[in-house]
Amino acid sequence: MKKFLIKILFILSFLTNFETSAEEFKYTNEQLNLYDVMDTCNINKTYLKCLEAYEKLYDTFPSESQSIDNWMYHEIRYWLADLYFSSKDTKNLPNEEINKYKEKAIIMWNIIFNDPQYKKDNWYKLASAVALGWNYYVQPDFRDFDKAFKFMKYAADNDFHWAINNLGVFYDQGRAVKQDYKKAYELYNKAADLGNNWSHGNIAVLYTFGLGVKKNYERAIIHLKLARIEWAYTSDEFSELMVLFEKKRLPVSAKEYMSWIESYIIKNQSKDDFQTLAWLSDIDDSVEDPLVTEYKWQYVVTKISKETDHIIRADQEIKFLEEFKMSEKEVVLAKKLAEDWIIKNWKN
């Protein structure tokens, strides 16, 4: 669970702090029809059709109708940026073409963040700050740790729980800031208190290994259970919870914990637990060649997992390791170890 991404679309159901009655702002039949198309669009199956509807609706609002009272304009502007960044049907295009879509999103999120109509705690302003902060943190072609910290801290300081959790990840990993497990624990707890379920999984890891807090089996179990309470949860990522139940104790090291989880994965052919192994690789000094080990498991994710979020996050981490941490020789070794593991252990 540790170090997962913010899933902005995950909170679509909480829109919006602007929405008012149709009586307060008059919309044309074309706008209402396009909004219905947008609101029911299945982005996973018809990305380009959805994008066309979003863009058409966005273009119906001239500058004089972009006031704070026009909730539809503000809603479509934010989600159009999100759609540009997802670029689902552009994956076969050259990287520079894909980045054009993503650049549109970055520009639009910056415009939203700096919109003078928005108050400090405006939902769209804060959500844009989180989107910018996270993507500056993880996206290889846009990575800028200074900007990532600036935007994420702004939203966190305004009690936006996704930002608080993600800022905890920054301190946990020690990339945009100096690593500080106590600070990470503090932020994860605050985010969890505000309703962020991802934080519970992150807290469980800290209790499992005594990072920034004393090791505690019971609390690790509790937070792993709470982490499973997620809106529309579809993953079968339960390895940590199951092995701790089975062993009835905490592991003595990351190496031991990873061996438990790997055995669980092989026995159950659990396709969504590989990233857990990747994140555990550098917890302590017990794992030999931690960078190669993490790369191996992230690579396995890209080959086996069916969860789009896992694959995207694995690809981001792979590119980070290639750019900042590993030699070409180490990358070749990690890929070979991953392929060998799949051949030996994966039946599906």
Quick description:
The protein is mainly α and 348 residues long. The protein has 16 helices and no strands.
Description:
The protein is mainly alpha-helical and 348 residues long. It has a domain at 251-348. The protein has 16 helices and no strands. It has helices spanning 29-40, 47-59, 71-86, 95-113, 123-138, 145-157, 161-173, 181-193, 197-209, 217-227, 239-247, 254-268, 274-280, 290-304, 308-325, 328-345. Helix 3 runs antiparallel to helix 4 (95-113), helix 10 (217-227) runs antiparallel to helix 11 (239-247) and helix 14 (290-304) packs antiparallel against helix 15.
Order of helices and strands: HHHHHHHHHHHHHHHH
Could you list the spans in which at least 5 consecutive residues all have pLDDT below 50? 3-23
If you average the pLDDT, what whole number results? 89
Number of helices: 16
Strand content: under 5%
> Strand count, sense and closure of the main sheet?
none
Strand runs, count: 0
Rg, Å, rounded: 21 Å
Structural class: mainly alpha
State the helical fraction. Answer: 55-70%
End-to-end separation in angstroms reads 24 Å
Question: What overall geometry do the principal axes of the alpha carbons give?
Answer: globular
Main traits of this protein?
348 residues; mainly alpha; 64% helix; disordered N terminus
Topology:
Layout: H1 29-40, H2 47-59, H3 71-86, H4 95-113, H5 123-138, H6 145-157, H7 161-173, H8 181-193, H9 197-209, H10 217-227, H11 239-247, H12 254-268, H13 274-280, H14 290-304, H15 308-325, H16 328-345
